[in-house]
Amino acid sequence: MANKIKIQMSIMMGVTLSLCLSFVGSFTSGNFTVGSFLVGFLESLLISLVIGYFVPMKLLEDKACEKAGITGKPLPCRALGSFISDLIYTPIITIFMVTINFVKIPAAHRPPYVLMLGKSMLISFVVAYLIVFLVADNYMKIILKRNGVGGPPEGGRPDMRNK
């Protein structure tokens, strides 16, 4: 069950992050086209899913909260967990995406790679952190409910009336 929940969370977060970061990347490049957005989205989604498959995010987030002494404090733990996720996903996705797009630009029109990467990295860190912070808990609640964890037991709520 835990693995199923992990996979569902990875897919939902991967789709959300990839969708948002692809939009942001396409718009900030100044060359938005539906085709470039869709290609960027699919590339980013593939990278996100690979990271999500191999990196035990919940375990890392829980250990970070424990080391910081904020276990049991929902908001600070969520903020730190979002930051940990951002530190893992964002650099990998951004480096891949910027490199892929850098190679696609004709040499005569390419900006310096470091400037292109720096701008994208800064924007991506902020956007990805906000997305993870705002949606991860809600996604987890939806996934847990869909899998019958933490909600009412199967068959509905128990009868609490005195018999």
Automatic annotation (TrEMBL):
The keyword Transmembrane helix applies. It comes from Ruminococcus albus. The chain crosses the membrane at residues 36-55, 87-107, 113-136. Keywords: Membrane, Transmembrane, Transmembrane helix. It comes from the Bacteria. This is Uncharacterized protein.
